[in-house]
Predict the structure.
Amino acid sequence: MINLILVRHGQRQWNLENRFTGWYDAALTKAGVVEAEKAGSLIKSLGLKFNYGFTSYQTRAIKTFEAILETSNIEISNVIKAWQLNERHYGGLQGLNKEETAKKHGMEQVMIWRRSYDTPPPPQNKNDPEHPVNSELYKDIDPKLIPDCESLKDTYERAVPYYDQHIEPLLKKSENVLISAHGNSLRALCKKILEISDEMIVKLEIPTGNPIHIQFEKNLKLKNCKYLDQTRAKNFIIKK
């Protein structure tokens, strides 16, 4: 059996402040570190070996990955960081308090920006010092590839081609893979793997720090998909 583990990073500081985060490089909270460590324990219980691991460029995903390895005592010889696995870019909403934004623009508009599949929020100005194009973290990335804002569809269109090119070939070779990423980039991967429709993907919620264990048969036919912590599991929406 071929195994793919997807983990959304643990709780971040801006969760507590109820702010849109996106590509802002927010740190994990203490609770987020605990979530990551618990994820490591759950993954350890599977008794699997991994030669490949992937994270985004963002600290919260990287620190979650590191905590998982430390807690599980799993050694992964090939660890790749890919900006394509970053969280969705929330554009001009990044850093704003969600409640205050709803008061300004109306809850209905904010929910469209947050939950529709193909409607992006207002763009972030490239002159903004917080725009990722101005970050040292992305200095080696072609500025034309760095978004000003993204819908979930936009996130899908960068994360899934990366998966197709760099991760799926490993799975086809029967390699087990561990990915630590973000709510929306993982939703994009789940959309592809579980064949979720555009209409239904907006209803998929992925809890922080709760590993998703996906098993494939040799031909990459989906065999099983489940959360390792069933007390915090959410429903999957498959082929609907």
